[in-house]
Automatic annotation (TrEMBL), chain A:
One of its GO terms (cellular component) is Mon1-Ccz1 complex. Belongs to the CCZ1 family. GO terms for biological process: vesicle-mediated transport. This is CCZ1 homolog, vacuolar protein trafficking and biosis associated.
TrEMBL record, chain B:
PANTHER family: COLON CANCER-ASSOCIATED PROTEIN MIC1, REGULATOR OF MON1-CCZ1 COMPLEX. Gene3D superfamilies: YVTN repeat-like/Quinoprotein amine dehydrogenase (2.130.10.10). InterPro entries: RMC1, RMC1_C, RMC1_N, WD40/YVTN_repeat-like_dom_sf, WD40_repeat_dom_sf. Residues 25-143 form the Regulator of MON1-CCZ1 complex N-terminal domain. Residues 471-604 form the Mic1 domain. This is Regulator of MON1-CCZ1. GO terms for biological process: regulation of autophagy. GO terms for cellular component: late endosome membrane; lysosomal membrane; Mon1-Ccz1 complex.
Length: 477, 630
C-alpha cells in the first residue's frame, strides 16, 4: 500500500506502481512519413526527446493495428511486459489514449551489496487500470467536451491547449498505487433516506428550479452521498466522482474548523444561514467578486449541452445547479440564489440529519458493520463499501490487505467474462475467505475472517449478510 | 352574487304574521320557534319552527297580555307568562289533563324576569332576586321546586346548546354568574367579571344584555362581550372580547376581535366564525379564532379575516298567489333597524315577518384571500369546504398564474396534515376498541370524518383527472406522466427511495416498461420480492427470461419447490436450448420425485412424457435415474 514500505528479513524495498508515461494521439493527423510528430496531441512527460515520443506512439499504433487482425471488434486493451504495462483506449474514433504503468518492484540486496530488481509482473489488474484510463477521458470530457468538438472549435491547436491544460494537473492526482475495484465500478454512493424526507428534498429542488428559473439541472448530495440527480446517470457518475474526490475534499478544512476559527473567519459570514458557494464567488459582499463557474459538458452523445456548474453547500447538504452556458450568472443572481437557497438549505440539512438519526435508531443499524463487503449495482451504479474507510484525493484507505483487494479484482474479472449469475468462493491465505456473488446486475464481494471455517459455514455467513443488508432487493441466494 | 359577498340569508326563511298591535311575536331560542299570538291567544296562536314543516296552531283563553311564551323541549308543555309573579302551564301531551295550571314564584316580592325550559319537563324561573329550578308534573298539573338560589339579578341570558344560564349581578351588572343544568340538577359555575371599558361614573347598571352573547365556537362555550369604543381609552374602535367558559374551571378572557370601527353592532356565530354586523355601514365582518393572531401572553388579538362586505342582496318572494299578481320580487332592506339577532345564526325581521338563518358562502371568499396558505387554513375549518378546496387546487394547478410551487406545496401540506390527523385518530380509536379499553370510557368517540379530510380519490376525481384522459390511480398517473416525458431516470430515483409504494400492479406496470427502459426489470423484481406475496410472479418473470436455474434456486430458497409444476420448468429449460441446463433441471425433478414418492419417475398427471422422451433422445435411456431400492 505505502509507496516504499520496508519488508522482509533482508534489506528489501518495495516500490509501488507508478505512471511512466501518458499520451494521446490520432494517427490520421500525420499519416505521411516525416509527419509523425503531428499525430501526437499530448505527451507526458513532456521532457522526453521527440524521437522517443514518436517511437513510442508508433509502437502502440503497430500493436493495436497488429492485434486488430485477430480480434477486429475488440481491439487490444493492454500490453504486458516485464517492466511495465501499457493500456490502450480509443474513446473517440481514431483518438487513442495510452497510459504506461511501471509494475511494482521489489528491490533486494545481494550479499555483495548489489541491488537486484524484481518486477512483479502479475500484480496489476488490467480492469482496474483500464478503468482509470477511461475515467481520465470522462473527466476531461466533463470539463472540456469531446476531442472532436475542440478540433471543430479551433483546430488541433485548441485541442492540444485544452489537453495540456487539463492533464498537466489531472495526472498528478491519479495516485496509481491506491487504485482498486472501486475504480472499476466508479459507482455512486446513495444516501439512505425515508420517503418523506426524500420528498421534502424533491419539493425543495422543484421550488428552487422554479424561483431560479434559469436552472436546467439540479443534483443534491448529503454527506458526499447522492440523493437526487437531474442529470442522466453517466454524466452524474463522473460529476459525482469530481465532487467527492476533488471539489468537496478541497473545501472540507474550513468546514471542520468551525465557526469561530480564523479559517472560518476569512470566509464571508452570514448570520442567517450556513450556505456558501463552493464554486463561483467567495464573498458576495465584495462588489468586485468574480462570478466564474466551471463549465461542464453533458449529454455529449446527443444534445451536447454546455453548462455552468454552481455548487452551493450548507452544512452537509450540497446542491449543484447547472445552468446553460449561454447565460452568464451575475453577482445579482448569485446574491439572489444565496438569499433564497441559503436559509432553506440550512433548514433542510438539519431536517435530513435529524431524520437520518431517527431512522438509524429505528433500524438499529448504528452498530458497526460486522461484515467487510463491497456492493455494486450496474443498473443504478449504487455502490457501498465497508472496506474503504475514507476516500481522500490522495489515498483510498482500505481496512484490508492489498492481496485481498487483488483477489476481489480477480473475481470481478471472472464475472465480466460470463453473463450468467455466479458465485465464487476463494480461500485466501491467512484465514481469510473471499466470496463474490453476482445476481443479475448486482455484484457483492465479502471478506470473512474466520479461523477454521469450512465452505458451508462461509456460505451460511454470506446468506446471513444478504438477509440483513439486502433483504429488500431481489438477490439470489 | 355580488362582489365577494360571503354572507347570505338562507333561501327558505320561516315566514310569520308581522308584529302589529293585535299580533304579538315571540321567539324561543331553545326550540327556535316563532310564536305569533293574536289577541292574547283568543284568536289563535301560530308556532313555526325552522325545521318543522307543519306549524302548530291553537287557541287559548285571553287572560291578559302575554309577556313570554315557550314550549318545553319536544313541544310537550306550553308555558305562558302573563304577570310578573307567575307562569301558566298548558299540557300538550295526549291523555293528559288539558286544563291550565299556574305556578307562582317562591321568593316573596320577587318579579319574574323570564323563564327557560331546560328539558321537556324542567323549567327555570329567573326573578330579580334569584333563580328557581322546577320539575313540572303534567299529570298532576303541578310543579315541584328542585332547587333555588337567591341572588340579585339585573338580566339573564340562556344558551340552550350548552344548557347554561348567565345572570347579570351586582349594581354595575358586570359580574356574571353562570348556572349549568343537566339531568335534573342545577350547578353553579364560578362567577366572573367583565372588564368595563372605563370606570363608570355613577353606580348604575353599566353592562347591557345587548352587548353580551353566548355561543359555542369550536365545541367550546364562549361569552362574547361587545366592548364599545370609549373616548377615555386609547382603543381605535370597538372590540369583541371572548371569554372562554369551561364547565370545570373558571372563565378566562381568551380572544379580542378588533373591529376598528364604532357604532351599532350585532353578533352572530356561523360555522364557528364570529360574525359582527355593523348597522352604520350596512356591512359585516368575520373572525376565525383558529387563525393565527397576535398573542400578547394572555389574550390573542385577531384582525379581520376578510374585508367587510354586506350580506348578499335578498329578494322577498312576493306574497299571495304569484300566478295572478305576477309582480317582481321586492328587494329586502338589509341591516334594518327592525332586525333582531339571536344566537347562534338567527336574524328576525319582526316588521316583515321573516326568520332567517345566516349562512357563510365559501366561493366568494376564495378571491378575497391574497395568501393561499391562509385561505386553506380558513377553508379547512369550514363545514362545507370540500368542493371549494378542490376547486382552489384545480385552479392552482391548471391556470398559468395559479400559484408558485412553494404555494402549491404549502397547500398540499395542509391538506395532507388534515388527512393524516384523521387517519391517526381513526387508527388509535380502532386500537382502543380492539384492545377492549373502550369499556367504561364514555369520552371515547369515533373520529368524525369532516369535509376537510380529502383523500386520494377526491383529489384525483376533481383535480388531477383533467390532466389525463383515462382513469388511473395516483401512482399510475405519476409513472405514465414520467414515461410520457421520457423522464425514466427520475422515475427510477423515485422508486429507489420508495416514493411510489410497492404493489403487484405497479410491479407489473414496470415489467411492461422493460422494453423501453431495461432497468425497469430489476426495479420490478425488487418490488415483487419486497411484497413477499408474489413468489409465483417472480418465478414467471425469471422463466420468461429463460433464467430457469435462477427461478428454481429462488423457489427452493423460499421453500416452495415441492409444489411447483415440473412441466413448466422443463418447458422453459427446453426453450433455453441448453442441454446441460435441461439435464440439470430434469435431474432436479427426478430427485424431487424420489424424495416425495420414493420413485424418480414422473406421474401421468405431471404431463412430462414429452420431456422424458427428449431426455432419452439426448442423453440415452441409461441416464434416467434408477429406482433405488434398499
Amino acid at each position: 500500500m505505502a509507496a516504499a514500505a520496508a519488508g522482509g528479513a533482508g534489506q528489501e524495498k518495495q516500490l509501488a506502481p507508478a505512471l511512466l508515461s501518458f499520451f494521446i494521439y490520432n494517427p490520421k493527423l500525420g499519416p505521411r512519413e516525416g509527419e509523425e510528430e503531428k499525430k501526437i496531441l499530448f505527451y507526458h512527460p513532456n521532457e522526453v526527446e521527440k524521437n522517443e515520443k514518436i517511437r513510442n506512439v508508433g509502437l502502440c499504433e503497430a500493436i493495436v493495428q497488429f492485434t486488430r487482425t485477430f480480434s477486429p471488434s475488440k481491439p487490444a486493451k493492454s500490453l504486458h511486459t516485464q517492466k511495465n504495462r501499457q493500456f490502450f483506449n480509443e474513446p473517440e474514433e481514431n483518438f487513442w489514449m495510452v497510459m504506461v504503468v511501471r509494475n511494482p518492484v521489489i528491490e533486494k540486496y545481494h550479499k555483495d551489496g548489489k541491488p537486484v530488481i524484481e518486477y512483479q509482473e502479475e500484480e496489476l489488474l488490467d480492469k482496474v487500470y483500464s478503468s482509470v484510463l477511461q475515467q481520465c477521458y470522462s473527466m476531461y470530457k466533463l470539463f472540456n467536451g469531446t476531442f472532436l468538438k475542440a478540433i471543430e472549435d479551433g483546430g488541433v491547436r485548441v485541442l492540444k491547449e485544452r489537453l495540456e491544460k487539463f492533464f498537466h494537473r489531472y495526472l498528478q492526482t491519479l495516485h496509481l498505487q491506491s487504485c482498486d475495484l472501486l475504480d472499476v465500478f466508479c459507482g455512486i454512493s446513495f444516501f439512505p433516506l425515508d420517503k418523506m424526507t426524500y420528498l421534502k428534498i424533491q419539493s425543495f429542488i422543484n421550488r428552487m428550479e422554479e424561483s431560479l428559473n434559469i436552472v436546467k439541472y439540479t443534483a443534491f448530495l448529503y454527506n458526499d452521498q447522492l440523493i437526487w440527480s437531474g442529470l442522466e446517470q453517466d454524466d452524474m457518475r463522473i460529476l459525482y466522482k469530481y465532487l467527492t474526490t476533488s471539489l468537496f475534499p478541497r473545501h472540507i478544512e474550513p468546514e471542520l474548523a468551525g465557526r469561530d476559527s480564523p479559517i472560518r473567519a476569512e470566509m464571508p459570514g452570514n448570520l442567517q444561514h450556513y450556505g456558501r458557494f463552493l464554486t463561483g464567488p467567495l464573498n458576495l459582499n465584495d462588489p468586485e467578486a468574480k462570478c466564474r463557474f466551471p463549465k461542464i459538458f453533458v449529454n455529449t452523445d446527443g444534445t451536447y449541452e454546455e453548462l455552468h456548474l454552481i455548487v452551493y453547500k450548507a452544512m452537509s447538504a450540497a446542491v449543484c445547479f447547472m445552468i446553460d452556458a449561454s447565460m452568464q450568472p451575475t453577482l445579482d443572481f448569485c446574491r439572489k440564489l444565496d438569499s433564497i437557497v441559503g436559509p432553506q438549505l440550512t433548514v433542510l440539512a438539519s431536517d435530513i440529519c435529524e431524520q437520518y438519526n431517527i431512522n438509524k435508531r429505528i433500524s438499529g443499524s448504528e452498530k458497526e458493520p460486522q461484515f467487510k463487503f463491497i456492493y455494486f449495482n450496474h443498473m443504478n451504479l449504487a455502490e457501498k463499501s465497508t472496506i474503504h474507510m475514507r476516500k481522500t484525493p490522495s489515498v483510498s484507505l482500505t481496512s484490508v490487505h492489498p492481496d485481498l483487494m487483488k483477489i476481489l479484482g480477480d473475481i470481478n474479472s471472472d464475472f465480466t467474462r460470463v453473463d450468467e449469475d455466479e458465485e465464487i468462493i476463494v480461500k485466501a491465505m491467512s484465514d481469510y475467505w473471499v466470496v463474490g456473488k453476482k445476481s443479475d446486475q448486482r455484484e457483492l464481494y465479502v471478506i470473512l475472517n474466520q479461523k477454521n471455517a469450512n465452505l458451508i459455514e462461509v456460505n451460511e455467513e454470506v446468506k446471513k449478510l444478504c438477509a440483513t443488508q439486502f433483504n429488500n432487493i431481489f438477490f439470489l441466494d | 352574487m355580488s362582489r365577494g359577498c360571503y354572507l347570505a340569508l338562507c333561501a327558505r326563511p320561516v315566514q310569520f304574521e308581522k308584529a302589529n298591535p293585535v299580533n304579538c311575536v315571540f321567539f324561543d331560542e331553545a326550540n327556535k320557534q316563532v310564536f305569533a299570538v293574536r289577541s292574547g291567544g283568543a284568536t289563535g296562536v301560530v308556532v313555526k319552527g325552522l325545521e318543522d314543516k307543519n306549524p302548530i296552531s291553537f287557541r287559548m283563553e285571553d287572560k291578559g297580555e302575554v309577556k313570554c311564551i315557550k314550549f318545553s323541549l319536544g313541544n310537550k308543555i306550553l308555558a305562558v307568562q302573563r304577570t310578573s309573579k307567575s307562569v301558566d302551564f298548558l299540557n300538550f301531551i295526549p291523555d293528559c289533563p288539558q286544563l291550565e295550571y299556574t305556578q307562582e314564584c317562591k321568593t316573596k316580592n320577587a318579579n319574574i324576569l323570564g323563564f327557560c325550559w331546560t328539558s321537556s319537563t324542567e323549567i327555570v324561573f329567573i326573578t330579580d332576586q334569584g333563580i328557581e329550578f322546577y320539575q313540572v308534573l303534567p299529570e298532576k298539573r303541578s310543579l315541584k321546586l328542585v332547587k333555588n338560589q337567591n341572588i340579585n339579578v339585573n338580566w339573564y341570558m340562556y344558551c340552550p346548546e350548552s344548557s347554561v344560564i348567565l345572570l347579570s349581578t351586582t349594581v354595575l351588572g358586570n359580574v356574571l354568574q353562570p348556572f349549568y343544568f343537566k339531568g335534573g340538577t342545577m350547578s353553579k359555575l364560578s362567577k366572573f367579571e367583565i372588564e368595563l371599558p372605563a370606570a363608570p361614573k355613577s353606580s348604575k347598571l353599566s353592562l347591557s344584555e345587548r352587548d353580551i352573547a353566548m355561543a359555542t365556537i369550536y365545541e367550546q362555550l364562549y361569552v362574547l362581550y361587545l366592548r364599545h369604543h370609549s373616548r377615555t381609552s386609547n382603543s381605535t374602535g370597538a372590540e369583541v372580547v371572548l371569554y372562554h367558559l369551561p364547565r370545570e374551571s373558571s372563565c378566562k378572557k381568551m380572544h379580542i376581535l378588533k373591529l376598528n370601527r364604532t357604532g351599532k353592532f350585532a353578533l352572530n356565530v356561523v360555522d364557528n366564525l364570529v360574525v359582527v354586523h355593523h348597522q352604520d355601514t350596512e356591512t359585516s365582518v368575520i373572525f376565525d379564532i383558529k387563525l393565527k393572531g397576535e398573542f400578547d401572553g394572555t389574550v390573542t388579538l385577531h384582525q379581520l379575516v376578510l374585508p367587510a362586505r354586506s350580506i348578499q342582496p335578498y329578494q322577498i318572494p312576493v306574497a299571495g298567489p304569484a300566478s295572478v299578481t305576477n309582480q317582481s320580487p321586492v328587494p329586502c332592506k338589509l341591516y334594518s333597524s327592525s332586525w333582531i339577532v339571536f344566537q347562534p345564526d338567527i336574524i328576525i325581521s319582526a316588521s316583515e315577518g321573516y326568520l332567517w338563518n345566516l349562512e357563510v358562502k365559501l366561493e366568494p371568499v376564495v378571491n378575497l384571500f391574497p395568501d393561499k396558505g391562509k385561505l386553506m387554513d380558513f377553508l379547512l375549518q369550514r363545514k362545507e369546504c370540500k368542493m371549494v378546496i378542490l376547486s382552489v387546487c384545480s385552479q392552482m394547478l391548471s391556470e398559468p398564474d395559479g400559484g408558485t410551487l412553494a404555494v402549491i406545496a404549502t397547500v398540499f401540506d395542509k391538506l395532507n396534515h388534515e388527512y393524516k390527523k384523521y387517519l391517526e385518530a381513526e387508527q388509535s380509536y380502532t386500537m382502543v376498541v380492539e384492545t377492549g379499553q373502550s369499556r367504561g370510557n364514555p369520552l371515547l368517540k369515533r373520529p368524525v370524518r369532516t369535509q376537510a379530510v380529502i383523500d386520494q380519490s377526491d383529489m384525483y376525481t376533481h383535480v388531477l383527472s383533467v390532466f389525463t384522459e383515462k382513469k388511473h390511480y395516483l401512482y399510475e398517473l405519476v409513472i405514465k406522466t414520467l414515461v410520457q416525458h421520457n423522464l425514466f431516470y427520475m422515475l427510477h430515483q423515485f422508486l429507489q427511495y420508495h416514493v411510489l409504494s410497492d404493489s403487484k400492479p405497479l410491479a407489473c406496470l414496470l415489467l411492461s416498461l422493460e422494453s423501453i427502459y431495461p432497468p425497469a426489470h430489476q426495479l420490478s423484481l425488487d418490488m415483487l420480492k419486497r411484497l413477499s406475496t408474489a413468489n409465483d410472479e417472480i418465478v414467471e418473470v425469471l422463466l420468461s427470461k429463460h433464467q430457469v436455474l435462477a427461478a428454481l434456486r429462488f423457489i427452493r430458497g423460499v421453500g416452495g419447490h415441492d409444489s411447483i409444476s415440473a412441466r413448466k420448468f422443463l418447458d422453459a429449460a427446453k426453450q433455453a436450448d441448453d442441454n446441460m441446463l435441461f439435464y440439470t433441471i430434469f435431474r432436479f425433478f427426478e430427485q424431487r420425485n424420489q424424495r416425495l414418492r420414493g420413485n424418480p419417475n414422473f406421474t401421468a398427471g405431471e404431463h412430462c412424457e414429452e420431456h422424458v422422451t427428449f431426455f432419452k433422445q439426448i442423453f440415452g435411456e441409461q441416464a434416467l435415474m434408477k429406482l433405488t431400492t434398499f
